[in-house]
Amino acid sequence: MTNDDFTVWSRCVDAVRSAVPFPAVGEVVRADLMYSQEFYWNFYYAVPEHNGVLLDWAWTVPEGVTVADVAVALNQLVERRVALRTKYPVSLLGLPMQCVHPAFDVPILTWQDTTGGGLRELTDELSRRPIDPAVDWPIRAGVLLRGEVPVSMVLVFNHLTLDGISTAILRDEFLALLKDPQGLPEVIGREPISQAAYEKTASEVGRHERVLAYWRRCFEQMPNMMFTNYRKGESGSPGREGGTSFTAATLSTVELVAAAEMIAARHRLSSSTIFLTAYVAVLSIITGHRRCSLYVASANRFDPEVQPSVGCFFQCGIMVADILPEMTVLQAAKRLRAQSLTSYGNAHHSFWNAKELAVRAADERGVALRVGVYYNFTQPQEATYRDELQRTAVTDASSLQLTWEEDVDWEDYDTDLYLRVVPNDPKGLFLLAHDSVLSRDEMERILTAMVTLISLWAEDSAIRQANISHLGEKLGLERRQRTAHWTCVDHCWINVSELTDLLCAIPAVITASVFSDGAGDEQTLIAYLASSDPEIEPNFLRRRLLGSLATHPNIMVPHRFVVCTQAPVPNDEQGWKVLPVATEGDGKDPLHLDPSTREEMALLAVLETFNPGMVKNMARSYVLANGRAAVVPAIIGRLALEGYSGILPEDLLGPQPLSAVAAMLQKCPRP
């Protein structure tokens, strides 16, 4: 077991050991998680590098305030805001929950600034030990001293407890309490525990069904992944050896934002749309995808009842940006504006329900689905930054002043490429990529092309009328070329050679060939096989390939299997077509497998413990057997207590059949 494996595995064990009954008795109030808390709760149990501390915030302490004053104000905040005294254990049934405890006195670490770098030192010390969401308080506090004088207060906290907007609310309340301990009005708005209950009301359930229908369409339409050179073993995905090596580039945005706002005003768009258009257009060129799937960050506070609330309401929406080659840049921008607004409107969703939908779509399409690309335009709350913009300034793309950072400590293992734009930040354009996906030179070409596009567009050149299909030439970018071993089917780039090798490795298969049929969106894959077993069935072949997707993400399960009893001469498509056929089909007809091995029976017993009514069929994936994503960490923990290791949460949340998952189990000492 690798160190990463052990970290994830042991956290799942701890989750089960700290399980609590639901509902609670006494002073502790318990409730389900909010939708927006699900992702960050899951994050702790999925990412080995993630220490449970995602955010830290430093506030300047006003003159004349003592450490004792800080402690009093902070304790008042804890009593006032339930999110600051909430823990997140699992129930005995494996479902995570919010547990709101009575107010407590927050321990404060004092730190002398003897080096001039005390603020960073204090933050690092507070963040050094993980915050276990089940048993630890969600916040830690420290005060930086110069002599006896407090100069800054640092808060470190779980992201599932607070988001960025909440920290601004807390800062204002903290400063107000320092001035007048009795001066704050009563809390208004819907706090996290009330929001969780609100999400279960009939009107919200209906809204959420419509939201999930949107997510389902996105999973049905998106490419399998944006970057075909992505590999789990190289991206630090949980349970796999390999680094989490990211490189980041930072660029000043003052002139660039000025250019984007000029364009936006001219076409009645937003500057966010202009950056998004440049991002998607360049991304389409360098990946060779017409459709680009990406997560779009959303503050998710459209509901007035949560705007003044303290909690984690932030979520990412999903969008499948589909810009046609014959569109002009301006037409593409208008389409992307509409698509991004739809994404924002559907961002408030259950992470676990969406995860289950993704698995079902992956099974139906026969691919491994991964988004991996992020866009985050942070709209400043104050408009003062606009005064700094030089409305006539246009950035010269040939002289970009990039600041580079290598081996970035980026905890989100699900990231391939991330773009953040903060208009009021002097270095507000931040592009980060995993080293297995893009090189530093490629990142620089992306930024140069984006800046060139926005700059030329701001000058009112003909670029806005340029067709998307010709944009690469104008920006100095070459569309990614692939060898003959690759083909694009269902908007997914598929390595046909790799798929053929996997088919040939199946017992009783003598030889195999894969061909594409049809054109455009109607194109399909057909696999021809010669088998020494005339009774080999397409559903068996399909199940074997589904089990290979976790380690071979660039393949696709063929849409049709044609099994012959001999190999053709010559070995080409026409040669296969004239052979007698033993059997053929899409392999989607039902296949039932009862558990037979010790590992299969052990796995199914634990799955049923946390999923009453689960379908007992080892030929299905966990989700297609009606398994719930929310209880997967508890399943891993319970298996460990039964003496089994070898699988991690992500192994259950994919299209591979349960028989393939059970084959990964290994006996181990009970922890």
TrEMBL record:
UniProt GO molecular function: catalytic activity; phosphopantetheine binding
Transmembrane residue ranges: none
Gene Ontology terms: biological process: amino acid activation for nonribosomal peptide biosynthetic process; lipid biosynthetic process; secondary metabolite biosynthetic process
Pfam families: Condensation
Listed GO CC annotations: cytoplasm
Secretion signal span: none
InterPro entries for this protein: CAT-like_dom_sf (IPR023213), Condensation_dom (IPR001242)
Domain Condensation, first and last residues per copy: 37-458
Protein name as catalogued: Condensation domain-containing protein
Organism of provenance: Kribbella speibonae
Lineage of the organism: Bacteria, Bacillati, Actinomycetota, Actinomycetes, Propionibacteriales
